[in-house]
Amino acid sequence: MSSIISDIKKVIVTPIHKEGYKFIAIFAAFAFILALLSSTLGLIGLVLTAWCVYFFRNPQRFTIATDSDIISPADGVVNAIEKAATPPAELELDKKKQWVKISVFLNVFDVHVNRVPANGKVLKVKYQEGQFLSANNEDASDKNERSSVLLKTKNNSEIVFSQVAGLVARRIFNDLNEGDEVKAGDLYGIIRFGSRTDIYLPANSEIKTVVGQRMIGGETVIAKLNANSVSKAVEKSKTTVKKSVKKKVSTKNK
């Protein structure tokens, strides 16, 4: 009994995302009108208002991540892991590059705030209008309304994460801007009323999840960037710098 009371207290005192206040007010006003008509209808309105408060909850999360860790950007269940995936076209990335995509489906009872999956710098933020197919649909990533972010991680890898609208979700909020320095677990947006999030990672990333596993946004490690690919990227960068320096010195001596 004490554990149930403790869980109820956690829900009651949980902060609410800023996008939820106007909806909670609308639901509460509707419940009041229904209560004037009938006590039964008023009770239904009260339950719906309580659900609205619950939907927009923004619980505190504790993120522990290294520069190689990829953290789940949302609560929900992993419903697909796709190899040789193609990131959203609007980001205009190299079509020859291989990516692996992990999709996390959120139902209407999941926490819907979204969190940054890795430490790094935002390179691009693109919004794309689209359809509102069910978030479970295989074509949702390509056809639905979405907001996508290209992030360069602290270890020089590039990842993409997208908020994808669903059958009921009709509005996506993304507070990130190009040039922002971010940390894994930072709150960056919300999708209203059912949706999915997609993460695109380098093909040789170490996947730490399986289809059907439940994620906790901002806490669950969903993948790790391959250390070998990272070190190669760093070495390539160092080699380029050395060649550039040698070329300048050679030109100066002439």
Top keywords for this entry?
2 domains, single chain, Glucose Permease (Domain IIA), alpha+beta, 3-stranded antiparallel beta sheet, 254 residues
Short structural summary:
The chain has about 250 residues and is an alpha+beta fold. It has helices at about 1-15, 20-35, 40-55, 140-145, 225-254, and strands at about 70, 75-85, 100-105, 115, 120-130, 145-155, 160-165, 170-175, 180, 185-190, 195-200, 205, 215, 220-225.
Task: Describe the protein in words.
This protein is of the alpha+beta class and 254 residues long. It has 2 domains: 2-55, no CATH class; 69-225, Glucose Permease (Domain IIA) (Distorted Sandwich), CATH 2.70.70. The protein is 30% helix and 30% strand. The strands form 3 sheets. An 8-stranded antiparallel beta sheet has the order 9-5-6-7-11-3-2-13, with no helix packed on it.
